[in-house]
Write a structure and sequence with these properties.
The complex is a heterodimer.
Chain A: E1 2-11, E2 16-26, E3 29-31, H1 36-45, E4 49-52, E5 57-60, E6 62-67, H2 72-80, H3 82-85, E7 89-90, E8 99-100, H4 107-116, E9 119-127, H5 132-139, E10 146-152, H6 157-164, H7 168-182, E11 186-190, H8 194-199, H9 218-231, E12 238-241, H10 251-260, E13 266-268, E14 276-279, E15 285-288, H11 290-299, E16 303-306, E17 313-319, H12 322-332, E18 337-340, E19 348-354, H13 359-374, E20 381-382, H14 396-404, H15 406-415, H16 435-450, E21 466-469, H17 478-483, E22 487-490, E23 493-497, E24 500-501, E25 510-512, H18 521-532, E26 550-552
Parallel strand pairs in A: 1-4, 1-5, 6-9, 9-10, 10-11, 10-25, 11-12, 12-13, 13-16, 16-20, 25-26
Antiparallel strand pairs in A: 1-2, 2-3, 5-21, 7-8, 14-15, 17-19, 18-19, 21-22, 22-23, 23-24
Chain B: E1 9-15, E2 27-32, E3 35-40, H1 44-51, E4 61-62, E5 65-66, H2 69-82, E6 86-90, H3 96-109, E7 112-115, H4 122-131, E8 134-136, H5 138-144, E9 147-151, H6 155-158, H7 162-165, E10 182-187, H8 192-196, E11 199-202, H9 208-219, E12 228-229, E13 232-233, H10 234-246, E14 249-254, H11 256-259, H12 265-278, E15 283-288, H13 295-306, E16 312-313, E17 320-321, H14 328-333, E18 339-343, H15 347-350, H16 353-361, E19 364-367, H17 373-377, E20 380-382, E21 393-396, E22 402-405, H18 416-428
Parallel strand pairs in B: 6-7, 6-18, 9-10, 9-14, 10-11, 14-15, 18-19, 19-20
Antiparallel strand pairs in B: 1-2, 2-3, 4-5, 4-20, 7-16, 12-13, 16-17, 21-22
Helix pairs in contact in B: 2-18, 3-13, 3-18, 4-12, 9-12
């Protein structure tokens, strides 16, 4: 067993706010304190490892609900950007494999850097189903963290066909089959309907236009998928990248989506990119509309969001929203990758740089910060950078400092272009996050939104994924505290010790879910599949060969 | 046939052929005992490869003498352990599992690793790094593409079922029949693909770059000097460009006629930019006609492991990338490596004579299921399974669609992954 002694515990799910206590770990789980006799026996037999956590903060392992960490898009980003990797090299160390870093690190390095930061679970944000085997292959080389795939389903042929035909039962069966055969965890909708429109050479505005050959609207797709996702009992609700993302004035679309889905559970991702007002007469063209969005989120029960906070510096934007990347390419003139995937999705990649001297970029930065500070309920808002789109995940400690330290934040705002303040009200917000709130937006809330009952808390029965940070008194810089945990325990195994990652690869698990469905859906799909896909439906499912280390999270 | 000798018949459906980058996954194979009896839906190349799979197999050899499997693994380990700067090369015809093992081994011995990509479609990847690339999977082409351009590519001979499954002759969601799409071949000679296409533009050798740049200029509404470019009249170019602009969804397939002729990566750079710019007026994609069955996989596997697609050096314990410096041909030509481990490739048949001469002089290990010119001169030959026939694994199609291989015949030797891992273990111990 492992005993973490004298910990200062931040565990929002169990309402522990700086509570001094011990944590006991047996195998890969947190357990209730054993009897004194049992403790004495273990001590005698040398079976007890004690970690002295006096003065140190202990939180559940960090959870990232939305990050691009594996698969064809990420890997294409790696190939595209040798210039991104050159200055950031990681040599082989004992059994740790070598690699490269910066905005699109190699697989091993993604695992090292999440673990190094105290994160133990990460969701791959956008898996194209046809290429999901590739994602699982990378997962096998992505150590230390548990991970799952959000499967792209907002522009799939069979989704649109069954909605068009009013065949709701087949839609549900198809979605469950899709999650099953791809080894997926949840449903991801990216610009629903809009990506198909892009493939047809059109652009859709709003959510009510029937602008594709299927003759259905984005609203119809979202509502059907939200309903199906609930009825299938998926642990995580529909995960939505809104239509018209990045466009001035898109906060109206976002409000329409939240209102459309108000009777369901839904997660809206990187909402910072979807909270812009429009200033047609102004050279800047847009402004932050964080206020209306924040209050709508606080007042709509089933909605959670993550931010996608802008971080100044280099990024590699990548998304299944093909037309968005085309627009970014036209805007920036930077190199552009586009890959349309038959029957399912689009995708694109454009390298960008966010500058703190650029008014537009600082408005985007402020929009994210405002949403963090204006959304009152920390269980509804999660820390992400939509890695590597708005910034790299390695910037989380910096963002935590921005949220916890108003002076630090105001100092940065001072250095930004004055004009930024005409389009935002970030300079007037003085809220500072508490450690309890930080623990909520970086693990507890994310676990709840993902339906991971055994993660995000430190109660008995929880997975032993634990991070021990130095106390704020011990290291007088919030950013350094969160960047350098002293211990990270994953599934009961110490993987970071004295702020150093162990020199051995410890595999994480693949998190999947397996909703029930009528297996006859395969026969129903077979005709169209064989005609319009370029591979056989029998070669489509990801077999057990690729799933050596997994856990099935039960449906609700 | 008596009851005793009667062999069990097995039928396999949806078998994947791994011999070219099109990775057809619809073959039907009938096996009797340990023999492939019938292959349906396969092209002529594929049929012959399946039928001859068990012929010309390698055996464990050291310096031309047959020996045990263990001995060749030992000898290979010794050579690589003693080498100061080894080269691991090939990869395009092994599985992802074999590629992963090769990268791990190269990292452990601090060597260089490169794939046949660097002498084939590698320039296309270099130009992608410069400009990006607008592409799609082959099913998109089948379903949507009403204009197909084959530039320096000859699928009728190199990827025989490509036309029927994905392109010229395929039917798809928005393409009901062949007449719904137009196909154009641009090449230096009238290839069999050109004969099948609707029109053929014969260009002068080594002037593809000029033609592509002229099309880009004309797309921007600018005039170009002269009357003819690369053997084509300005009028012909204008007509071609009009077709491109008027297509609903155009596809440009390119082959080694673009990547390995004068200009190399600048040719594909120009083509990728042209396609990018065409997306301002319509939808257009570009797809490389990758040759070897898993050459796309070699770049993909290298990228998630090292961050780079090929030409990687591990001398410093971390990956460094520099084609030209760390590419196999260049290192061999400069005599910088002192041992070579060839995995599923035949450099003696494909690389320049000077390079081959140097390969003969240094310790040379070959891992391959079949005899070839390189196994003939190798110091150590390691036999292995045949991917997709006796060896399972993962392969990536030219458009990066991953497929899982199954086997139809029992394996005689450990596979690529196992062989490479064993070598690594012996070096460590």
């Amino acid at each position: 067993m492992i005993k973490i002694e004298n910990a200062i515990i931040y565990d929002p799910i169990n309402e522990k706010n700086g509570t001094n206590d011990n944590i006991w770990i047996k195998d890969n789980k947190i357990v209730s304190p054993p009897s004194q006799g049992k403790v004495a026996e273990m001590k005698k037999k040398g079976q007890l490892t004690t970690i002295d956590a006096s003065g140190k903060m202990v939180m559940p392992g960090g959870i990232d609900i939305h990050s691009h960490i594996a698969g064809p898009k990420v890997n294409s980003g790696r190939v595209l950007r040798p210039e991104d990797h050159r200055g950031d090299t990681i040599p082989r160390r004992n059994q740790l494999r070598s690699g490269v870093g910066k905005t699109v690190p190699s697989s091993f390095v993604i695992g090292y850097r999440y673990a190094d930061m105290g994160y133990t679970t990460v969701m791959e944000a956008a898996g194209p189903p046809l290429k999901s085997r590739h994602i699982h292959e990378e997962f096998a080389d992505l150590p230390f963290i548990d991970k799952g795939i959000l499967v792209l389903s907002g522009n799939n042929y069979f989704v649109m066909k069954y909605i068009k035909e009013n065949d709701y039962q087949s839609l549900k069966d198809y979605l469950a089959w899709l999650i099953d055969v791809t080894g997926g965890y949840g449903l991801k909708l990216v610009n629903p309907g809009g990506v198909e429109a892009w493939k047809e050479g059109n652009e859709l505005i709003g959510i009510d236009t029937r602008g594709t050959s299927f003759g259905i609207s984005p609203a119809e797709i979202m509502e059907n998928l939200a309903r199906a996702s609930e009825e299938l009992g998926l642990p995580h609700p529909v995960h939505i990248h809104t239509n018209n993302l990045g466009h001035p004035g898109n906060y109206q679309t976002t409000k329409n989506i939240i209102n459309l889905l108000k009777d369901y559970r839904a997660h809206i991702t990187h909402i910072q990119f979807s909270s812009y007002g429009s200033n047609q007469d102004d050279p800047i063209k847009f402004r932050s509309e964080s206020g209306e969005i924040a209050s709508l989120i606080d007042n709509t029960e089933g909605i959670t969001v993550d931010i996608g906070q802008i971080v100044f510096g280099d990024v590699t934007t990548m998304t299944a929203d093909g037309i968005l990347e085309y627009n970014l390419h036209k805007l920036s003139g930077n190199k552009w990758v586009n890959t349309d995937v038959e029957m399912e999705t689009g995708s694109g990649i454009v390298p960008m740089n966010y500058s703190s001297n650029n008014t537009v970029n600082t408005i985007q930065w402020a929009t994210g910060m405002e949403l963090f500070l204006k959304i009152k309920n920390p269980w509804k808002v999660f820390l992400t950078t939509d890695h590597p789109n708005a910034g790299p995940f390695t910037a989380y400690p910096h963002i935590i400092k921005l949220l916890m330290d108003n002076d630090f934040r105001q100092q940065l705002i001072e250095e930004m272009p004055d004009k930024m303040k005409d389009y935002t009200d970030i300079a007037n917000l003085n809220r500072e996050y508490s450690l309890f709130e930080i623990a909520t937006i970086t693990r507890a809330g994310q676990a709840r939104a993902l339906g991971l009952d055994k993660k995000g808390h430190l109660g008995p029965g929880a997975d032993a994924d634990i991070t021990i940070y130095p106390g704020l008194e011990q290291v007088d810089d919030i950013e350094k505290v969160f960047a350098n945990p002293e211990y990270v325990i994953k599934d009961g195994e110490i993987v970071v010790r004295n702020s150093e990652i162990i020199e051995r690869l410890v595999p994480g698990k693949t998190l999947m879910t397996k909703p029930d469905y009528d297996k006859d859906i395969v026969n129903k799909m077979r005709g169209d599949f064989q005609k319009y896909y370029s591979i056989s439906i029998d070669n489509y499912p990801v077999t057990d060969k690729y799933l050596k280390n997994f856990e099935v999270i039960p449906c609700r | 046939m008596t009851a005793q000798t009667k062999q069990e018949t097995k039928n396999y459906k949806n078998v994947i052929c791994t011999f070219c980058g099109a990775l057809c996954d619809n073959l039907q194979v009938t096996v009797e005992g340990n023999e492939i009896k019938k292959i349906r839906k396969a092209c002529a190349i594929s049929k012959s490869k399946f039928k001859n799979a068990l012929n010309h197999r390698t055996k464990p050899m050291i310096k031309g003498r047959e020996t045990s499997y263990n001995r060749v693994i030992d000898k290979a380990s010794q050579i690589l352990a003693q080498s100061k700067n080894p080269l691991v090369y090939g990869l395009s015809s092994t599985t992802v599992e074999g590629q992963k093992a090769a990268i791990k081994l190269t990292e452990a011995i601090g060597g260089n690793i490169d794939s046949t990509s660097s002498v084939c479609h590698g320039p296309g990847t270099l130009s992608k790094q410069l400009s990006g690339m607008v592409s799609s999977t082959l099913g998109e082409v089948k379903n949507r593409s009403d204009l197909l351009i084959f530039w320096g590519a000859n699928p009728v001979e190199a990827h025989p079922n490509h036309s029927r499954r994905y392109s010229m002759l395929a039917e798809g969601l928005y393409i009901d029949q062949r007449s719904d799409r137009e196909s154009i071949v641009i090449d230096v000679r009238k290839t069999p693909t050109a004969k099948l296409a609707d029109s053929f533009y014969q260009v002068r050798p080594n002037q593809d770059f000029e033609i592509l740049m002229s099309l880009r200029q004309m797309l921007k509404g600018k005039d170009i000097p002269g009357k003819r470019i690369g053997g084509l009249s300005k009028l012909a170019l204008k007509k071609l460009l009009t077709k491109m602009k008027e297509a609903r969804f155009g596809t440009l397939f390119f082959g080694m006629g673009l990547t390995m002729t004068r200009g190399k990566y600048m040719n594909t750079w120009a083509a990728m930019n042209l396609v990018k710019e065409l997306n301002d007026v319509t939808r257009f994609v570009i797809i490389p006609m990758r040759g070897h069955g898993n050459v796309a996989g070699s770049e993909i596997t290298m990228a998630w492991n090292t961050g780079y697609p090929f030409s990687v050096n591990f001398n410093r314990g971390y990956p460094r990338y520099n084609p030209g410096e760390y590419s196999a041909v260049d290192m061999l030509a400069r005599k910088e490596v002192d041992a070579a481990f060839i995995i599923a490739s035949d450099p003696v048949a494909n690389l320049p004579a000077g390079v081959v001469d140097y390969l003969k002089k240094i310790p040379l290990i070959v891992l391959d299921p079949h005899k070839n010119l390189t196994t003939e001169i190798a110091d150590v030959v390691i036999p292995t399974g045949i991917k997709g026939i006796t060896m399972p694994g993962t392969v990536y199609r030219m458009d990066h669609v991953p497929l899982e291989l199954r086997t139809v015949l029992p394996q005689q030797w450990p596979g690529d992954e196992q062989a490479i891992e064993k070598i690594g273990e012996r070096i460590q111990s």
